[in-house]
Known about the structure:
A: mainly alpha, two-stranded parallel ribbon, 4 strands, B: mainly alpha, 12 helices
Amino acid sequence: MLVNRKLILAHFWLAFAAFGVALALGAWQMFIRSPLGVWLANPELYYRSLTAHGTVMGYVFPTLVAMGFGYAISESALQQRLVGARWAWTGFWMIVVGAVMAMIPVALGRASVLYTFYPPLIGNVFYYIGVVLVVVGSWIWVALMSINLRVWKKANPGAPVPLAMFANVAGSYLWAWTAVGAALELLLQIIPVSVGLKATIDAGLARVFFSWTLHAIVYFWLMPTYIAYYTIVPRAIGGRIYSDTMARISFILFLVVAMPIGMHHTFADPQVGAGFKFIHSAFTALVALPTLLTVFTICASVEIAARLRGGRGLFGWITALPWDNPMLLALAFSFVMLGFGGAGGLINMSYQLDASIHNTQWITGHFHLIFGGAIVIMYFAIAYDLWPHLTGRALADLGMVRTQLWLWFIGMMVTTFPWHWVGILGMPRRMAYFDFGDPAIAPQALSVTFSAIGGFILLTSGILFLVILARGMRSPVTDAGDYQFSLAVHQPATMPIALNSHALWVALMIGLTITNYGYPIMTLALTEGTSVPAVYVGAQ
Amino acid sequence: MSAHELFSFRNPHFKAGVGITVALFILTALVGFIVLPFAQPWIEFSSVWEAICSAAGVPQRAATTAPASTHRLSNVVLTSSTLTRPSQESIGRGATLAQRCAICHGPTGISRADSPNLAGQYAAVIYKQLLDFRSGARTNAVMSPFAVNLTDQEIADISAYYAYLPRLPAYHPTPQLPKPNIVIYGAPIRGIAPCGSCHGSLDNKTGSPWLEGQSEVYLKAQLIAFATGERRNDISQQMRNIARAMTPQEIDAAAAYYASQPPDIVKAVD
Lengths: 540, 270
């Protein structure tokens, strides 16, 4: 039951349009910093582009996908018209206004601070206010998801919450809490300096606040992908979820341990004690657990589909899978990229191993593989799966869809593997150009060239994706029927309250945030003399 | 089941969830705050409490005695809003005080003696250099005696006055040269940022002067002084690190380029 289709489509279209622009910027950046391009006479242009790319890809694009998908889940999983649709539109328009407001100073070169803000670098205040508007707009979505679930619970007392909605609300709570770190940094520290009320800023404290947001935000980006793994893929390939309970436990674990781990981003920072770094490192290791549970459950679910299709043997069933089905293709690609990206992540979270790759291109490779690869390819899959239900028109050309997914997968591998390699060789990230003519780094030129070619393969795939969706708006009208989610092998009839509600897990998430962040933040905030003069972008 | 029953030790999920989380936190805290600090043989702790404080990052009081230095260091703090809104009175007082500077820096702030042109220079730049000359962080046989008796207010006034003057062409203008690589690209592999990323052309950073139309001899002399360590009032050795890594050809190219530029092309963001 999808009633507010226009609302959902608006979210998706804005998300993908912004994604297209940011993708083109990304490909340009890869080109000009490779040996193929001529050095930029004004490196500031590179940082301008990098800021726009990061801000759109980090804040605007995934947030809109999560929101659009969330509204679709709320209506179709709960079989209930969205409560507060007008508020949802308000949130959407706040994001539109926020994104435009943030991008104007970036385009003018007044906010080249990268999406991670980097105080004491301070940009134009409208950039920060724009980002705040995007976040506040998404908080409306968080509230609406909670309210809709409450309304449904009241109408269906004691019934198990559908898995898709349970996970969706878990994702929204994770986002609500993780965004608080960056919000505190912006409202208490950066914006007062940006408007001129203060001329100094505690950059160390700001980095700790940002690490609060920076890692858990990845799990917020990941949520729609994991929801698609569990509730779309098994249905799309004719299988069933191996275990509904295992799925819920995975989402609960994400909610609890995804949050208090961000300090592994500050391993090289002196203002955080080593003990807290160790705790964060240990909890980061734990967050691999829900991913391993998911990989196990989804492989088992896929095996069920294969065996139902007549697959036999220990591994023989793999050949019985519907490999021409885009959902399966996307899942397989996603898992491969998640595997490599996850292995790299285990290196980043280890204090000693991190030292050798900290702030190198390895990191860029890692998060593009996880986010751009494993996560975004499932965003494509979600869009393909939902599109006929949103537009009432079929996506006719599955061959084109498969080509697009292949290109994305190949492009991401070609882009990120050389990045990892040059990172190990020590190439720093966030540089506008490199002197490949120097014998010290000349051997890296070939890898970087490959990487740039990968960027253009990705751009091709991204354009193809937009073409497929646009063509889907004009194909003949069909009735796609009700939008359905996967069923479990054993559909739950009753559910213990702890696995049917979020309160306990949200409480644990907040509790761990206090234990793992409370002391470092408090000390930094109370210690005198830790602020440094702000550096205003473009000011003299 | 109500919320009351959810948050109850009779609920097995509550017991397991809270129990495992607390146990994990205690375990990781024990390892991180006690086991690992003591596992570092190169650090000695007098007590467990000291190890815990060290691992928690409790701020330690820095040594009260500064390391001995044979040279005075610059202690000027600049922000991008330093002296940005001078009063008319300040500029007027500065004009009077600046008469004593005219013999080298020219009556209109344009030098005929290979001293820096000051007309239209950023106030923060002149302010910092005068303070450094006064404190001895920067020394010059001619300049130091002029600076030594100036008050803070006089230094601010002189800075405001020169910043107020229009940017005039240099006294001996040469034909405009094309931008050399060192100015627009720097030398990335040697850690040299482009000159233009701080000194105009591309961007300006607080405390960095614009250089267009300055004397070639002066620019070259300063770069060499930075490279040899003769001049050392740059904060955190910013200019010394750059000048040391520059080749003599790059020093010549940068000095000649900036000397040949008309000052009206200074990227004016102010």
